[in-house]
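quick one: flavin-adenine dinucleotide bound model?
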Amino acid sequence: MNEHAVVIAGGGPAGMMLAAELALAKVDVAVVERRPDHVLVGSRAGGFHSRTIEVLDQRGVADRFLAEGQVAQAAMLAATVLDMSDFPTRHPYSLGIWQNQIERIMAAWIAELPVRIYYGREVTGFAQNDTGVDVELSDEGSLRAQYLVGCDGGRSVIRKAAGIEFPGWDPTRSNLIAEVETTEEPPPGIRHDATGIHALNTMEDGRTVRVIVTEQQLGTGSEPTLHDLSEALITVYGTDFGVHNPTWISRFTDMTRQATDYRAGRVLLAGDSAHVHYPAGGQGLSLGVGDAVNLGWKLAQVVNRTSPESLLDTYRDERHPVAARAIQHTMAQAALQRRDERMQALVDVVSELAVMDEPRKRLAGLISGLDVHYDLGDGHPLLGRRMPDLDLVTADGPLRAFELLHDAKPVLLNLGAPGGFDVAPWADRVQPIDVSYKGEWELPVLGAVTAPTAVLIRPDGYVAWVGEGTDVGLSDALATWFGPPAAA
Ligand SMILES: Cc1cc2nc3c(=O)[nH]c(=O)nc-3n(C[C@H](O)[C@H](O)[C@H](O)COP(=O)(O)OP(=O)(O)OC[C@H]3O[C@@H](n4cnc5c(N)ncnc54)[C@H](O)[C@@H]3O)c2cc1C
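yep, here:
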């Protein structure tokens, strides 16, 4: 039986991001992926928003995605674009890039890191005890791990086997999604009616048409046929545009659920296995990447025995509210897609409000993921929020703040007198650096904040402690987040 410190079930975006985070922290990690390779049939998600670009930038790989995608103002509420080009971030936009491209780029990235991937195998169950987890595979083999993470999507076997409840709302509507060829030119743009949203768009190759059509009746099952697609199109458009030669037909619904817990002993959940919702707003993939980046360093520290297991409880405490908020938002977005005349009146009212400065910023902050605030107690507004990617100056020259996070290690930025802090007991874990910064400190949605004299940054880019002229609280923050001090 092969042994790994961590086994991840599922190599979608959440599983691959988590694998990268663990590998960067030198944890022996393996991914079990049901598919024979990383090719994703069908385009699925259409991109991600600003915070996810930042998270990838923190690891030095954002350029790989930016090079293949198209930046655009794509944070939307109903028909209103929430322009965020004035947000204080290096990436004040969303990135349009298909999920099959995203997964290809991620797979190439983790191939450069020491990540073992078992392709063409499924996790079928597990048994855990105090010392580890036996992970059962479909080929009757098994793996042994200290921890197992279910990144195996909305129908998660891991979540079910762990007995974690998944309450929420049953589906009320279904959409067919497909990539096909047509004999008639499809009409451009999006159409709304009382059932929901419909759209046909010719893809980059000029031949394939991506179709999304809301079904009149709630459809079930994930393997709809070309006939189902044809009928659904005729009902909405009066023609099926001669759809033929499908390369992908699938169905998704507005089923909305969230796991009550993200951990059962040595088994954890991340991504769609922990939360599913209608894709309106395009936040699902980003939420999974956010989960992975929050969990990765914590799990690494527990596996490497620098932190107690209780650190893992902060994963659920921090990430559950983020997904719950996004879920509420997607339910509102989904409701606004159903447009009879009364709903259209509501869409018009909401749209009028959404372009005003305050609502625009709040909504764009949520959709972009830039407003995430982990509850780390009272204090400076930076506490629990993302560290901005400032242009710093060090003794060796200019440096972007995110460059300090490429290795996924904690950083103590000292913006005051050089050598002002003694972090010797954490020297093996935390990188202290003296920097200067003359510009404004500005946060998305909140605006300008008081300049701190020091900032302790977690590997996920969130601020764990803020210095305001003293080191009060620094030792506690270091011990809370990065483990007890080493003996002198
Ligand atoms: C039409 C549509 C449009 C969308 N648009 C967007 C968008 O624009 N932006 C956005 O952010 N999100 C979007 N989403 C949501 C996004 O696709 C998902 O949230 C995202 O794929 C979730 O990633 P994941 O890694 O958690 O799960 P998945 O992508 O579902 O990956 C799970 C992986 O686990 C594997 N697997 C499953 N079971 C097992 C098992 N037992 N053993 C081994 N392997 C297993 C699967 O093969 C798969 O590779 C969209 C979704 C849909 C359907």
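The pocket of flavin-adenine dinucleotide is lined by residues 9-15, 32-35, 44-48, 99, 122-123, 151-153, 157, 177, 252, 271-272, 279, 282-286, 288 (CB under 6 Å).
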